[in-house]
Amino acid sequence: MKYLSLFIICLLFSCGKKEDVLLPKSNITIVKDVQDLSPIYIFFKKEGKDTIADVNRKSSIISTNWIFNIDKRLPLKVVIPEVMKLQEKKRADSAHKNENAENYYSYADSIGKNLAFVPFTKVYYKMERPNKDNFVVYFKKGRKQVFMGNREIKTTQILQNFYSIKFQKVPDLVFVFDKNMSYEEYIRYKILLHKYVTSNLDRLPVEFIF
Questions:
Q1: Which of 12, 72, 160, 164 has the most CB within a 10 Å radius?
Q2: Can you list the domains of the chain with their CATH numbers?
Q3: pTM
Q4: How many Cβ atoms sit within 10 Å of the Cβ of residue 164?
Q5: pLDDT of residue 3
Q6: What is the pLDDT of residues 166-177, one digit of tens each?
Q7: What is the distance in angstroms between the CA of the first residue and the CA of the last residue of the chain?
Q8: Which domain of life does the UniProt lineage start with (predicted)?
C-alpha cells in the first residue's frame, strides 16, 4: 500500500461516511508482509474537550492475524485500554483460537514506501504504577532518550546497561510509558525496542502505562 506525504490515510467507508486513520511513520522495517489478516481501526475523535478512541473491529476474525491501524494523534491513556480489551477478547476465545495468529501494530514505512508492522502478541499491558521490586525503564513524553535508574540513556543501550549491573537477585525488567505520550511516539519506541532490545529477550517485559 502506497502512502502520501508524511502519513498513510486508511479509509473506512461506513454508511456513506469516510473516516481517516493517520498512521505513525518510521524508516525502520520490522515486518514487511502479513497474510491472513483482519484489520482493526482505532479512530481519533473529539467530543467536546475529550479525546476519544473510536474502535471499529467489524471485520476482525479471531483465528486471523489482527492488524491494529491506530491514529497517531491518540494519547496512550485512551488507546491502550481499548487494545487491552481486544487482546483479552482474542485470548479468551478458545473455540476459535489459532496459536499461530499474531497481533501487529501498523505504521508507514518510509523506506519501502508501504505499510510495515511491529508484533505485540505477547505483550501484557497494565494501567498502573509498577511494583518497586521491578527494574524500570521509563519512557517520558517528548524525550528522545529513556530513563534507567538515575541515568538517561539511548534506547539501544538498555540491555547493555541492564546486564552491566551486578544484582544480588536479578529483578524483572519492565517498561513504563508516559500515559500522555502520543501513540505515534509510542510506536517509534516500540520499533526501536523490537530491533535492539526485546528480540534478544526470552520473555517480553510487562508494559505499564502510567
A1: 72
A2: 9-121 (no CATH), 126-209 (3.30.420)
A3: 0.89
A4: 8
A5: 38
A6: 999 999 999 999
A7: 34
A8: Bacteria
